[in-house]
Every structure is written in structure tokens, then in C-alpha cells.
Amino acid sequence: MPIRSATEADIDSLLPFEHLGREALCRCARGGFVYAVELDGETVGVLRYGLFWQAIPFLDLIFLAPKARGKGIGAEAVRLWEAEMKLRGFYDVLTSTQADETARRFYEKLGYRRAGGFYPPGQQAEELIYSKRLEE
Asked: What is the CA radius of gyration of the chain?
């Protein structure tokens, strides 16, 4: 299995893939919102989410080391996260990416549909919001 729930013991191995600081990442991990992505027993990435409006899982970040990209690991990690969200009783999920990033194609291949966008303060490119209805 390429992803597993992260614990505080994983924080040092996850920090290279994150823009959050140690304390914020620890809080997220304690809340069950962080997953370690692994390849051959080595941490090669992170998947982190939150709850939009405290009701809809929002995939905040998936980031993989270059050596783990292009192997289907990211797609499998997202599918496993979606399955976990469904087990928790959620049937809709959200994510976002900048319009000038290639991640939009990644999400579209996984069945995400564009739901809107906005320009966050200080960001030059539009932030695209994507949604997906999980099969019931």
C-alpha cells in the first residue's frame, strides 16, 4: 500500500515535501489529516487534506519526490484517500491547483471536474477548484 496515516514520528521524513512548518504539520497529523506516501519502504511524498466548511474533504496537497513521479503512485494514493473518505461517509471531495501547473491534468484524469476558480492575494495564476462525486 503506497499510503498510510502519518504520525508525529513521520514528521521529519515528510517536511521535505511540505510547505507547512513542523508544528502545523504535527497538528494536522494528530488530527488524522496527513498520509505518508511510500515506495519500497521509503517515504517519497505526502498527502494532506482538510475539511472545507468542516464538511467536505479538500485535498490540500499531494507532493511526491521526483523519483516517485510517473509511476502511478500519486494516482493510487489519491484513489486510496478517496476510498477512505467514502468509508468515513463523505461522497464529495474537492481539491485545487494553479491554472499554470500541470496538476490540473492529473486531477482531470482521476475524474475531477473544474468547479470554479479565484485569484488568491499575491498569486499571479488563477487557483482552479476541482470537485469529484465519489460513487455511492
From this structure: 14
* Boundaries of domain holding 25: 3-133
Residue type (1 letter), 57: P
Q: What angle do CA 77, 83, 63 make, to 5 degrees?
A: 20
Q: In sequence order, what are the residues at sequence separation of 6 or more whose Cβ sits closer than 8 angstroms to the Cβ of residue 36? A: 3, 4, 5, 6, 10, 13, 14, 43, 45, 46
Give the whole-angstrom CA distance, residue 3 versus residue 34.
Answer: 10
What is the identity of the amino acid at 118?
Answer: F
pLDDT tens for 52-77 read 999 999 999 999 999 999 999 999 99
**H or E stretch at 12:** helix 11-14
List 58's β-bridge partners, or say none: 50, 94
What CATH number has the domain bearing residue 37? 3.40.630.30
Task: Please tell me the pTM assigned to this model.
Answer: 0.93
Count: domains in the chain: 1
Alpha carbon of 67 to those of 39, 64, 72, 110: distances in Å? 10, 8, 12, 21
